[in-house]
Design brief:
about 40% helix, Rossmann fold, 6-stranded parallel β-sheet, 14 helices, alpha/beta, 2 domains, globular, 7-stranded parallel β-sheet
Length: about 375
Amino acid sequence: MVEKQKFNIIMISTYPPKECGIATYAKNLFLALNKVNPKVNISILAIDELKNKYSQEVKRIIEKEKINSYCEAANYINNSEANLVYIQHEFGIFGKHDGKLLIQLLKNLKVPIVMSLHTVPITKEAKRRKSRIELFKKFSKYCRKIILTTSLAKKTLIAEIGISKNRLKVIYHGTPQVKYITQNKIKDKLKLNNKKVLSSIGLINSSKGINLVVEALPDIIKEHKDVVYLIVGTIHPVKKKEVDEYLKKVTIRARELKVDRYIKRIDEYLTEKELISYFQVSDIYLTPYKGATQVSSGTLAYAIACGRCVVSTPYIYAQEMIGNNLRGFLVNFNDPKGIAKKINYILDHPNIQKEIEKKAYKFGQKTTWKKIAEQHLKIFKEVLKNK
């Protein structure tokens, strides 16, 4: 347990009601930190380009594209009673190309900084890899500690920017504390009786590989006519036009393959409780992402925490979470036949499915928000001790 020491933290992040994964992460972590140590006073500075209505913990808005807003935020923090600043980083959250405006904030802060990097360009095909690594070099000059979501991301930063390993810490994506229940207990509630449920859940964009599952469905349905594929979540707000076009093509293709009646779209931004219900009802959770570079996935973490068998392409976070086929199965990129083959194998072997579910659930108990919050507080305490 982390000693209940009193100190003041300012967290900088996107934040609800903004609909984005980092905002949800920040809110869940805020609640967990308060629960683990009520003596810690946490305030939020929200990155925003709109005038959202925020809850009382949000003390200030940093206007995403206005350089003066970053300088003013630094002055606000320096004149506050903050002992530490904790920043959630994702390319696109902060202003200018790849969020370079963040440097205006970092260089003006006079309190210790801890930063979580939710995306690290590890593979050679990662978008703008060279320039983004250079950006991380600049960030690292100002940060006492950097938190990462995978061990491979840690190895990359050590090798690429020469940062010492004791300044880096791996903390997996947090998950709710969920009771393990069988799918049948919730299928009645969601009107999915007598169905084998496949699902992909979360904000939708073209990189999620939903089209690959559609291509795989004819081979799955040949053997399992009781299958339904749930596509749960709204379109990613930053990519609405692009994703609208993508989904139109997916819909047309589903009709061509005559599998559209096996697909159910839930086009809603759901509460966490509602999301968990869809994870729990799933026999197989699918993340057939198109690229190898993703180093964090909240939905994959949630699926494992709910004790669900996963079929995924081998992007970085999936490799680390699934392990050597312990908590699901990895399939090749862009391989609908491989997806179908693996899904059919799981559905044909319910005993293996249940064994994998138990292993997934056991692993998920290590990533509850409570345990993630304790790990963060341990880092914060260490930074303040060496201040």
